[in-house]
Specification:
There is one protein chain. The protein is α+β, with helices and mostly antiparallel strands. The chain is built from 2 helices and 5 strands, in the order H-E-E-E-E-E-H. Strands 1-2-3-4-5 form a 5-stranded antiparallel sheet, with helices on one face. The N and C termini lie far apart (69 Å).
């Protein structure tokens, strides 16, 4: 049996607590392994950070989902009225934005970009049990039409 190392900080200081369960003997080692994995994940920190708009400059903001390779950007064009805040939804590996739009205020631009992002993600193919990368559907509702698409 391997020797246990004593942590330098208490369980509570590390955000952990001790739990006792009653389980069949044959499953006990599986629960121990699961507990070790949970502790390792906890120590490694969150695997995914909540989406948050980040200001890049006085005229640009960015929302990135690195796990899925998707980003939304907003640019303040300083134009009057409806096209002042232009937003785009772009996917890593795609040559053109998936969709884009414009509005007269920043809050509406953020909201429209987030709806486009959520819609795009909802129409993606679900991941397999093997954890393969998600692939976008070819003709989802997020796809912006252009003259080239005919």
């Amino acid at each position: 049996m391997r020797a246990r190392r004593r942590p330098s900080r208490s369980l509570a200081a590390r955000g952990l607590c001790k739990v006792t369960i009653i389980a069949p003997e044959l499953t006990a080692e599986g629960f121990r392994q699961f507990a070790r994995e949970l502790c390792e994940r906890h120590e490694a920190g969150p695997a995914y950070v909540d989406r948050e708009w980040r200001r890049l400059s006085v005229s640009a903001e960015l929302l990135v989902d690195p796990r899925r390779g998707v980003r939304c950007a907003i640019q303040d064009t300083r134009k009057p009225k409806a096209d002042r805040y232009r937003w785009t939804l772009a996917v890593l590996g795609e040559p053109h934005p998936m969709t884009e739009g414009g509005t007269s205020d920043i809050a509406t631009a953020r909201s429209e970009a987030e709806v486009a992002l959520d819609t795009y993600l909802a129409w993606r193919v679900l991941p397999s049990d093997l954890g393969e990368e998600l692939e976008p559907l070819a003709n989802g509702p997020w796809r912006a039409s252009s003259d080239a698409d005919g």
